[in-house]
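Team,

Forwarding the record for the chain on the shared tracking sheet. I've put the sequence and predicted structure together so nobody has to dig through attachments.
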Amino acid sequence: MLNSITMVAVNVILNYILIFGALGFPALGISGAAIASVISEAVAAIYFIIYTQKNASTCKYGIKWRFAIDCRVLKKILSVSVLMMLQNGLVFGSWFVFFITIEHFGERSLAITNVVRNISSFLFLFVQASASVVSSLVGNLIGKEKSTPFLYVCKKVMLSCYMIILPIIVLFALFPESILRIYSDNTALVFDAIPTLKVMLTSYLIAVPTFVFFSTVSGVGHAAASLLIAFVSLSIYIAYVGIISHFSSSVPLLWTSEHIYFLSVFILSIYHIHHWFTGINSQGKKIITNIP
């Protein structure tokens, strides 16, 4: 949390200095924003190193500060991380396709999508945080063979996430104009963006269980399955966007692609978890699945 605060503070200050040319610096515009982002990330990395040096037990965690490459360990890390990198690349690629499609409908449609996407990113912070928690806890429970049912953990995390985002969703739905005016003072744009905003908000009712169970797949170490789920779901997502855009230029209708994507990921994740449980149980192994 402290690292995030530090990174954001540095980014905000440098954005002001480099974009507008404050304190004698040249005004760099959008290039200044990029430079500020890079510097803030570097500051975050340095913060983590200093924090670890001062607070982490080198004996307990086997930390060696002498730089060396262990090819055996690196190979194990890459065997999982490469799959995760491909998965994230697919997600960003699908968003690129979505924005290119929207762009063909005109500047107004693209502006609406950008505004709604910014609001969606705020809500996604809570969902992503919950998903990260599930991934860590499930991996820990499976690794240590704890008696706590990890599906019970998923249930608890989902309820916690809903308790946070549901009031926000209701607030945004009741006062859409006030929320949209944070991002634009164009009255016509704000009015046109309201239907799209409401469609986006409903997608988060599905997003919570989707990302919790999807992260469970990653948490138990099934990186290849996670990649396959993402690939199939994004293929369905892109096909849906292509079909809808062929028959309609409605931005709210195109945003229903989020529902299709979340549903696809949810169904495939549940199927994989169920299939995994069935396979383990058929081999006579003990698996922790009960939900009190």
